[in-house]
Write a structure and sequence with these properties.
The chain is mainly α. It has a domain of 100 residues: 3 helical TM bundles of succinate and fumarate reductases. It starts with 34 loop residues before the first helix and ends in a 5-residue tail after the last helix.
Length: 154
């Protein structure tokens, strides 16, 4: 079994591994990474941070969602009564709309990382697959949010 690559950003600003003050380990004493490598490292660092931030935010959203569901079920509300309360609710539409956005971003970045690390796909292919998956989740998720908040509203 192959060990997973460490996907955390390395080193100083932009994720470049440093080999001393102002020098890149890959640059071997030159002024730094090539521009394309620096952009790629910066993009990887941004994805890493977005992945962690979406995870933290989703933890709060999951806690609220589960708390409300437990409260509603213990209160004896049926699925129809719960849907009745979500109809035309801007608050619930915003809450679940943001939740879907966070989940789509998190899953797309995660799938990209898994495909890049564990498959023979090139980085560009893994990125396109992750982006496509995130877009699909976003469309389907927002469609579901619309269905429980606005579809069929009188």
């Amino acid at each position: 079994m192959m060990p997973a690559r460490d996907t955390r950003p390395q080193g100083g600003p932009g994720g470049a591994a440093q080999d001393g003050p102002g020098r890149s380990a890959q640059g071997g004493g030159h002024a730094g990474l090539r521009a394309a490598d620096a952009r790629s490292a910066a993009a990887a660092a941004r994805r890493w941070y977005v992945q962690r931030l979406t995870a933290m935010a989703m933890a709060l959203f999951v806690a609220v969602h589960l708390g409300v569901m437990i409260w509603a079920m213990r209160g004896g509300l049926s699925a129809a009564e719960i849907l009745g309360r979500t109809r035309e609710s801007v608050g619930w539409a915003l809450f679940y709309g943001v939740f879907v956005l966070l989940a789509a971003l998190h899953a797309g970045i995660g799938l990209r990382a898994v495909l890049a690390e564990w498959t023979p796909l090139p980085a560009r292919g893994a990125g396109l697959a992750g982006d496509a998956f995130a877009a699909l989740l976003l469309v389907l998720g927002w469609r579901a949010v619309w269905a429980v908040t606005w579809a069929g509203a009188a």
